[in-house]
Structure formats: structure tokens, C-alpha cells
Amino acid sequence: MTDLDRLHHHPGYWPSPWPVECGGNRRQKASPGRLDAATRTAAVTTRRTDTWTVMVVGRDPGEWYLGGTMAAFSGPPPHGWVERIDPDTLEPLATSPELPCGEHVWCGAVLAHANGSILSVNGSYLHRLDPDDLSIEVERELPADRSHNGLLALSDGTLITKDLRLEGQGGTTLTRLDPNSLDIIGDPLVLPEGSMGRIAADVTEDWSGQAVEHIYVPGTEHVWRIIAQPDGSMTIDEWQPRYRRANDAVGLAWDACISDGACWLMDCGDIHSVRRIHEVEPNGRYPEPPGRDLSWRLPAPWPGGLRLLRVSTLDPSDVRVAEPFGTPGGGIIAPPVHVPEHGVTIAWDSINGGLAGVIGDGVELDVSWQLDIRPSMQPVVFPDSGELVINDFTDDGADHLVVVDLVTGELLDRVDTGSRIGNGMFLTADGDGGVFYCSTLTVAHVRWT
Predict the structure, then answer these.
(1) Under CATH, which architecture does the 3-448 domain have?
(2) For the chain, which residues score pLDDT lower than 50?
(3) What is the DSSP annotation of 96-164?
(4) What is the pTM of this model?
């Protein structure tokens, strides 16, 4: 079952086509409908925000929320923000107050909760906002004074978030909170390892037929699975597959995509800019502007090639690995996506360039096709039409959206977003033949008609 099948039945979210990053807790990034981009014409609306725009989530029909932070790596203190935007003009209809973030500069998250509120995590703070005027209803400083990435609602409505820690920075803290009061439920859980990637979650049945909700956390060496207990506590599951060893010739994993009985990841993620942002405290704050030192185009700090990993959710010893490109010094700033309807997993190398379709869930993972583009961000897939939408940061410094056939790798369409900066932010399906695009300084809405 995909997020596409279960999303509207998830009791933690407002019934919306896209209430949370990646469209759902399994991070399958799937949308119903189709673009048919090869036979339709794309129209683009672009707005320059001059801030770090991160993601768009939806609530009621036509009601869209844009969240982000300030790209304030030096100078005045940063803050988070949320806007309710007009989907046609992208101009704000309402804007939140400046949201404290503990002075950490990093991309947080926004979601539309079942209780009607808009929730925003940014830096070391969580806010519950009124959905109409985006005034602050509740503010909560989180127990870990670091940047947080990822915010999900579980099936009981409780919220889960985590801080971001690289190798050698101690264990990552997971915090569970009440969605109304934002009171912390139980004791925060500190993992034995740091974690860079965002969390995923899924509900499965145990041997007795009881529903169990798991939270997946990519660590610095293992993938950790946390059991969200009905009493609000969290415990570490015995399922602890190792995907990487300390001092490996590759980097850390970003988020997981939970699909087809497996946890899909790409490593080589703690590239030079990510390390620079999180080696200082507050995260991402410098006395002087760091400039190009924060570019994701810098060479990778390891010799190994980018790896796609498939980890069985039943057998932690069943870890299968593919190197789709085999190019030394691979690097990414976003996770893969597996599309069970077409039996294909999409992987890419942002530093060296290259997009690939990988097939197989048996002993071997085989590259089915490759495309010479340079993606960097969280994509969207349309299983009904077999279309993938992702960015291509071109050699002349323009960020385009491309539509690719999931099965053949054929490039179906290319659209200039008007953005001159590509990063690892989120695409959002609008449920009506279009896609929202977020990047540093820019938000865009592309529609195919």
C-alpha cells in the first residue's frame, strides 16, 4: 500500500492532497492523477522571496501554506516564517509573526494537522499557528538546542520531530509532543548515534495482528526503528540494520522511503556545505558571510561513489546495494524514491550529475536507464501516468523542472522555473495537474494544461 492509497485515511493530518512533506509519512512522494506533460503546455508563476523557501503544504481546497526560514548565515538573527499563499499569484494572503528558531539556520518543516492547526518546526522551536491569520497559538522550545529537520504526525495525532547531528556530535534526540498544547510526552529519546536525515513512519501489523507504528531514523552507521508506544513512550526496536561503518569511504544517509517491504536510502549526504552548517553553534551562524563555502557543488569529502541501499523491513541483515553511476566522490542533498506501481527506484548524484532508474528487489539491483541531468531536490511521482518531476540545475546556473518517464527514462518536458539557485528542497503536487517548487530565494508554481 502506498501513501497514495492511505493518505486521506491518515487520522493525524487534515484531509488534503498534500498535508505534509513528501505527501505522507512513508515519503513515497506520490500523487494521484497525471500531468501528461509531453502533450500539454506548462505555465509558470514565479515569485522571488529573498528568503530560504522550504516547502508548500495544503489544507482545504485552494488553501496552501509556504514555510521557510531566513538564509541569514551571518548578520541579524534568523527566524522562521509561514505564509498562506494565493496559488495563482503566490503572493501571501497571511503571514506569521517572526518565529523564533534559537538562531539556527536550517530547513525545518510545516504540516496541516487534523486539529486544523498549521504546525511549524524551525531550528530548536515548534509553533502551532492559526490556519487563517497564522498567529501563534502555542510556542514550544524543544529540549535539544540544535536545528531540527522533519516533523510528522502519527496515527494518534501526536507529533514527532528530531534534531540533526553528524558523526561525532552525540546521539540524536527524538521528541514526541501533544499537537494541541505542544507539551512534551514522556521523556525525549536519545539514540546511540547522530542522525542527519529526516524521519519516516509507517503502521504495520505484528505477529499477533496488532497495529504497530514505527519511526525510521537514518543514523550515522545504522538505520534505527523506533516503536511509538500507545502510552506515548518510545522504544528502540531490535531491527537495527547497518548501512555504513565508521570511517567508510562514503557519507551519511538522508531520509528513508518506506515502500514494498523495504527501507530505501542513498548515502553520501553529509557533503561539505552540510558539515560546515552543523559544525558551528548556533547551526549555520558565522561572524562573516561564508559565501561559496556553503555550495553543494564543492567536491565530496570522500572518495566513494553514491550508493542506493535497499534494507528489508523484515530482515535487518538483508541490505542490498547498488552504485548507479560508479563515479568517485558522489554526493546528494535529498533521498531516493521507490515507485512500487512501476517497480523502479529513482536515484541521482547531485555533485557529479546523473539520474537513474534502478529495478529489482531480488539479489541484484540493476540500472535500467540513466539521464544526464543534475537533480538535487525532493521529487514528486505520478504513478497513474508513470511521470517523475524533479529539478535539473543546468551548467549555466538555471534551475529547471524536468518531467521524466519512470519506466524508460525519456525526458518528456523541461520548464525553466526562473530560479537561479538549486538546492535540496521540496516539490509538492497541487492535486490539479501542477507542482509547487521551493528553493533558496524563490517559490514557483508550474501547471500543465
Answers:
(1) 8 Propeller (2.140)
(2) 1, 4-8
(3) PPPBP-TT--S--EEEEBTTS-EEEEETTEEEEE-TTT--EEEEEE-SS-S-EEEEEE-TTS-EEEEE-
(4) 0.96
